[in-house]
Amino acid sequence: MRITAIEATPVAVPFRADEVWAFGRRRGLVCVLVEVRTDEGVTGIGEAAAYPSADVVLAALRALEPLVVGEDPTGIERITKRVEVVGTWHHMRNTSPALAAVDMACWDIVAKICGQPLVTLFGGRFRDTVDFFHYVSGAGPAEAAEQAREGAERGFGTFYLKVGSPRIADDVERVAAVRSGAGPDARIRVDANEAWSPAAAIRAIRAMQPHGLELAEQPVSGRNLAEMAYVRGRVDTPLLANEASWTRFDQLEVVRHGAADAVSVDNQMDGGLLNLKRSAGICEAAGLPVVKHSLGELGVAMAAALHVMAATPNFIHANQCYASLLADDVITEPHVYDRGRLPVPDGPGLGVTLDRDKVARYAEAYAKDPDAHAFHDEDALTAPPSLPRL
Ligand SMILES: [Mg+2]
């Protein structure tokens, strides 16, 4: 079997409410859907996060084409090494989502050929359902409390909010609001996205601890692991690495520095599902749990990750997702959360099918105004960049 073509379709799916974080807000999610075609009529589907933009992903996919077309889609390790060595793609990260989408589509093909759900090929079902958090994106305390209440009513057990605003007291107030909305047993996770200096991180986390924190995600720069280890030694809340742990190579460094209690892993940033499994393995060997990070995904990428998470023991905390934000999807049977958990698809391959009408609708939405769903914040554009906060 040989790969004959890679087809890419950027789509823009709206959010129910804007996603707000330290660096701006966005109205919807742009992703690039990928179809890998073969000479035997089997087609695999994949999805790339539009990181850093859909244009970059589309250009990376065009650059991948001569390295991938003509290859056997079942030779995924060979394809990945071919891209890295023959294609001299030594500097991954910005090009990783494109490679991850091709990897995903190839796994879809392999599992379809085997007539098995992908989970079987990645180690089998360690668990039947996977836990996800409820993303509280509201800017103010009242909005945050209301969104947390909605998530609790839907049965989610873990709540995630961005922190790192100019005043620590404002963040503490929002954490308290989420606690009031989510209830006393809820797990609350805060993510500063590197916004704090070590001193600010220690002060902020200690101020939030009375409200009960499950994890504090990337409180300080992910590029200075000694700082993370310093903070980790001075707060009671476990730290979750994210910007420090984009790839398997980074995760090894996080482990070596003792910089975190849990580690984010992401097949989009690490160039494929096999690397997601490898990353989890590195952390498991160090006795650390992992959390699936999300740059935002639609139903295809979610299905792919579900298979790997279900087959990998140390995904024990709630994983990231955009369930609370997305207004729609591009697959015929969208994932339905039951008390914050998703079942692993049963069908062969990824077990999902593209809804052609929706793909066409959201491809048109992207084509009409490609920038409409990007992060935007007029204030942030004109204000001086002033991180980290002291
Ligand atoms: Mg994060």
UniProtKB/TrEMBL annotation:
Domain Mandelate racemase/muconate lactonizing enzyme C-terminal: 141-238
Record bears the keyword Metal-binding: yes
Annotated keywords: Metal-binding
Gene Ontology MF term list: metal ion binding
PANTHER family to which the protein is assigned, alphabetical: D-GALACTONATE DEHYDRATASE-RELATED (PTHR48080), ENOLASE SUPERFAMILY MEMBER DDB_G0284701 (PTHR48080:SF3)
Similarity-based family: Belongs to the mandelate racemase/muconate lactonizing enzyme family.
Name of the molecule in the record: L-alanine-DL-glutamate epimerase-like enolase superfamily enzyme
Origin species: Spinactinospora alkalitolerans
